[in-house]
Each structure stands twice: as structure tokens, then as C-alpha cells.
Specification:
Elements: E1 10-15, H1 19-30, E2 36-41, H2 44-51, E3 65-68, H3 77-86, E4 95-99, H4 104-112, E5 117-120, H5 125-142
Parallel strand pairs: 1-2, 1-3, 3-4, 4-5
């Protein structure tokens, strides 16, 4: 199978309150051959402000992909997901749920809110890094993301 790769740089918004998880994700993705720009916010309120270009995020780019944790301070990831999917200006941005919760209710609810995929964070470092590489391979190499430039 011949997999075409994205040649254009894309912006990715990581919404993650754990700085150690964020660093691991960003480190793994930055090692890729892809030209991507990563933006990290550590709570749900900042994520919405970033996406709506409010406050200090007035110059923020529109991300082509969002990686969203569910358990966030200020505004829960479920609320963030719902707000994004209800806003016609940003509703088409694909959202990867990346969380520690393996609750069936969380999985069902986030798919009802139109998440594009749901991934449980692995506990050990090797599995975590492998998971990030799989996300990269699928979402950044194989999938065609919309361009908003």
C-alpha cells in the first residue's frame, strides 16, 4: 500500500492539563518528519479562547486537528467538545479524545458529541510513545485534513 503524506505544515492544538503528558506527546510528534506547528493549552477555557481567537489568542491559527483530554480544569473536555461541535465556525475540526478514562459512558457520550476518535492513554512510557506514533501515522500521514488557509 502506498501511503501519501501531508506535505503542507499543519497546526495542531493539544488541550492537556498534565504538563508531563503534554511534553511526551509534543516530543513524540516533534520527532516526526512532518512540518507541523503545535500549540498547547492546559485547560478547557483556554482551548475555547484559542479556537475563537479571544484575548491573548487573537492571532492564533485555526488548527487542522485537536487532541483533547476530557478531565480538564476550568472547563471540562466534554463541555469543550460540545461547544466546538455546536459552533459552525469550528465544528469541522477533527477531534481526537486522548484521556485516562476507559469508562464506556465517557466513550459513548463523546461519540454522541461527535468526537472523531477516542483513545485511552497507556500507562507505561513505551506504550504511550507508540500510541502517539500511531496517532501521527493515521491522522498526519494517512487522513486528509481540511485546509483553511
Amino acid at each position: 500500500m502506498n501511503i501519501m503524506t501531508n506535505t503542507q505544515a499543519i497546526d495542531i492544538l493539544l488541550v492537556e492539563d498534565s504538563s508531563s503528558d503534554a511534553e511526551l506527546i509534543l516530543e513524540a510528534l516533534c520527532d516526526s518528519k512532518l512540518s507541523s506547528h503545535f500549540h498547547w493549552v492546559d485547560d478547557g477555557a483556554k482551548a475555547i479562547a484559542f479556537l475563537r481567537k479571544q484575548g491573548k489568542y487573537q492571532e492564533a491559527p485555526r488548527p487542522a486537528l485537536i487532541v483533547l483530554d476530557l478531565n480538564l480544569p476550568k472547563k471540562d473536555g466534554r463541555q469543550v467538545l460540545q461547544e466546538i461541535k455546536e459552533d459552525p465556525k469550528i465544528s469541522t475540526i477533527p477531534i481526537i479524545i486522548l484521556t485516562t478514562s476507559d469508562s464506556q459512558q465517557d466513550i459513548i457520550n463523546t461519540y454522541r458529541l461527535k468526537a472523531n476518535c477516542y483513545i485511552c492513554k497507556p500507562i507505561d512510557l513505551e506504550s504511550f510513545m507508540s500510541m502517539v506514533k500511531l496517532i501521527e501515522e493515521f491522522w498526519l500521514n494517512l487522513v486528509r485534513l481540511p485546509s483553511y488557509q
